Amino acid sequence: MTAKTKPSSLFLGIDTGGTYTDAVLWSEAGGPGGKVLAKAKALTTRHDLAVGISGAVDAVLQKAGTDPTAIKLVSMSTTLATNALVEGQGGRVALVMIGFAEGDLARDGLKAALGTDPVVFCAGGHDVHGNAAKLDLSGLEAALPELEKSVSGFAVCAYFATRNPAHELAARDLIRDRTGLPVTASHELSAKLGGPRRALTTLLNARLISMIDRLVAATEGFLAARNIAAPLMVVRGDGALVSAAFARQRPIETILSGPAASLVGARHMTGLDDAVVSDIGGTTTDVAVLDKGRPRLDPEGATVGGFRTMVEAVAMRTFGLGGDSEVALEDGALSPKILLGPRRLVPLALAGLMHGEAVTAELERQLRAPNPGRMDGRLAVRTGVPERLAAGLTGAEAKLYELIGAVPQALDRLLTSNAQNATLNRLVSRGLVHVAGFTPSDAAHVLGRQANWDPAAARLGAELFARRRDGRGQFIAASPEAISERVLTALTRLSAEVILETAFAEDGLDGAATVAHALVQRAVDAHPGIARLSVALDRPVIGLGASAPLHYAGLAELVGNRCVVPEDTDVANALGAVVGQVRVSAEARVSQPKEGLFRVASGESVRDFNDEAAAIAAAEKDVRAIAAGRAKDAGTDSAEIEVASEFRVSTVEGQRMFIEAHVVAVASGRPRIAV
To answer: Which residue, among 673, 636, 641, 656, has the nearest Cα to 240 in the 3D structure?
Structure first.
């Protein structure tokens, strides 16, 4: 191993993705953008994320030959919260609704999100000006002894709590005093109106607390074992960094953490403030927009697992297009087009690497047949999940599942009817079975542009696919190389389509997908037609992902602007996690319940003033102080604070009438580092 050095200001970035956990060691020295000293990947270990994290981090430390004690900051992005919401996971929590009726559960998906978790309704709440109704917590108090035994935490939401949080605070204090369990109050997460959606966001946050707590604790334990005594930061869904302690209390804000980190990494690596960022992985392509150096955020709040939250997060569009996408042919066409995705297959090259002769022997057998079969080049294998997850299978599903083992089996021997094919698809959907087949990753292996798996299995798969026939009965390609070139060309073309579709959608245009397809098709056609159409993005594309250098090589001419693929594009998420900034905000509302009375609602206080200017000044002072405190809690000691005020007024008979003011303070700064 290289002799250990101890350079100053070393930063460790970690990203836990769906397949791999990435780690990167970065130094502020080495130029304006710093320098990546080492990077590494390890398989993500879902049963214990700390195992995958330690594998990636230990590899990075070994490559760099660095003393772990020289690391001054550790920052991580994670898909844990996102995956948990998508998969319906999380702790059992009790929802406390103050001032709401049972009918409110039917709004904004709250009832579906609640499922079988308990809910307690209490009288109380406030009106739009913060005036209180009578609070009655006796029902909650009576229910606490039983709830304490069956839930891991509480979510509290009161009517118009964003205008006066007093009733949420009373319920929160009661629950903490009697149970000692974690409590999330809705006003702590969002200042927006919309009680049921705020309750939904609070419920999901309460569910995630124990999960993120375990991740942070495991990571801190690993860092301590390596003598890394540096602050631990976490990337939020808007790309900002917050301390691990902050993330533990507000884990809902880490949804879309990974995609947000990739955008931060993209900007850092390229220096581009305005760009379209396209991140291609094995299963999906994620596309988002950078504006003035920051990711565009979803103004309606992030949607994850079918639930629209009130969490500010990057506006990301996800498409089922990646290196492991299923390759198929257009049905019934004389000259069928290559179709990709949205389903992911295990590439034959990867299956060959893992299972050797069991894969290649079946592919060679199919090639010896005089005519191609519709199931050629397809194999099924169990995913290896615990047997308990196979509970509840139908008779047909159980019978087919028994036939499929840990070694891939060719579908032409396994399936005997179309009905069985549908049964197989259901087993795949449940995560019990993988299907292996020809993918763009295999095409890249055939052409020598990728070499990390088994090129022989990939070539056999390409030969089988090339033997498929078009509408005239002819082979669709003359050689494995020819079909592989077509597949990779199709992937680049479809990448251009999803990038243009995202751009059109961001511009508010209807039919974005149709227009994008037509424009790209005209660009690649030898005879584009009578009407000449062209399009050009107003900003370059930043290509991210390990396969971006391959698949985005011909992208520029299709999108009308250059495509930049950074040197460290394969670890953009991990790099983004470590180079970001802390950014938090605080809000206050000034309303006029009656003429001449101005009410300021800021943080957990409500105060009245007789003068508009005095009320606005108090609101600005409050949000500045609150933002400064939150910035310190979030992990920075050097925050710069900007305050902005937005007024709603009307004019009656020539006189200005104050309606409401919204005051926002934003604090941002670099995270504190170990001394």
So the answer is: 636
